[in-house]
Amino acid sequence: MTKKIGILHGKERSFPEAFVNRVNAKKIKGITAEPVMIDKVMQGESSGYAVIIDRISQDVPFYRAFLKNAAISGTAVINNPFWWSADEKFFNNALATKIGVPVPKTVILPSRELPDDTAGESFSNLAYPLDWKGIFAYVGFPAYMKPFAGGGWKNVYRLDSMEDFFEKHAETGQLVMLLQEEIIFEEYYRCYCIGGKHVRIMPYEPRNPHHLRYVATHRPSKELLKTMEEIVLKINNYLGYDFNTVELAVRDGIPYAIDFCNPAPDADLKSVGEENFEWVVETAANFAIEKAGEQKDGRDNLTWGEYIKRSTTGKPLIP
């Protein structure tokens, strides 16, 4: 019986096409790869795929529902659609503080405008005004403000003062925002993590234009590389992501995890460059083949992180 590996994607082309071609080029007996094709979704019925790599369901709720249904029948979905639905950036930071990963000081803020179908009375448990003095003293300025969920550098603001904050926060509508300490860094890295064990540490310069962000000249020491790899593995093993990126800003020799909720990270050839692209295509193909070999119909073949596993067994969060 042939096991199919599918990739679910949107308008991106370079990575999905290269991934499918790479898996098929390996000519593993009983395993093929293709773009996912959906013509109907019936409750509790198999998707027909042993493994699906998800690159788009964060933007398409229909796809997220399809993937959860597929998982019920045993599809190994990369990444776990249930955990991805539950996770967000503020929780990521809160978890990091508990597992010993340095992160910027961060607070979460209620939306500037009332959510649909709510009124002032819906927020009777929320102090008005908030303790802005305490919030600003904790985070400090300069600071960054960004949505607590989502990505792609959308709705991200750099703020220099309290006045700057209130002016920019007034533009955010119903978005729930994070206010985060700015880490003035000497070096910055973006790190792929695949399968909870394969790490690719890439020098990165977020202050460059988007197409030049992977054009960075800093080179980490062996000690820093080891520390960063340990942080990346710890984060992804606790969160349970099979395919993710972690961004690390190095200040005074200490890597701070800035953004590590990227379960559909950029893997486009034009932005990441040929060497990084080759690594992510090859590593993703090998991992998907590995998952297909382990997959069993009718079982839960999803990856669950240490946070969830420890919660269900009563084990301490930190071993």
Quaternary state reads single chain
Q: What about the largest sheet?
A: 4 strands, parallel
DSSP summary, beta strand count: 12
Overall form: globular
**Which percent range describes the beta-strand content?**
15-25%
Quickly give the CATH architecture of the largest domain. Answer: 3-Layer(aba) Sandwich
Report the average pLDDT across residues.
95
Q: Under CATH, the topology of the largest domain is which?
A: Rossmann fold
Overall structural class, as computed from helix and strand content, comes to alpha/beta
How many DSSP helices? 10
The rounded Rg comes to 21 Å
What is the H/E order? EHEEHEHHEHEEHEEEHEEHHH
Give a structural overview:
The chain is α/β, with parallel strands linked by helices. The chain folds into three domains: about 5-85 and about 285-305, Rossmann fold; about 95-100 and about 185-260, ATP-grasp fold, B domain (D-amino Acid Aminotransferase, Chain A, domain 1); about 105-180, Dna Ligase, domain 1 (2-Layer Sandwich). The protein is built from ten helices and twelve strands. Helix 1 packs across helix 9. The model has no long low-confidence stretch (mean pLDDT about 95).
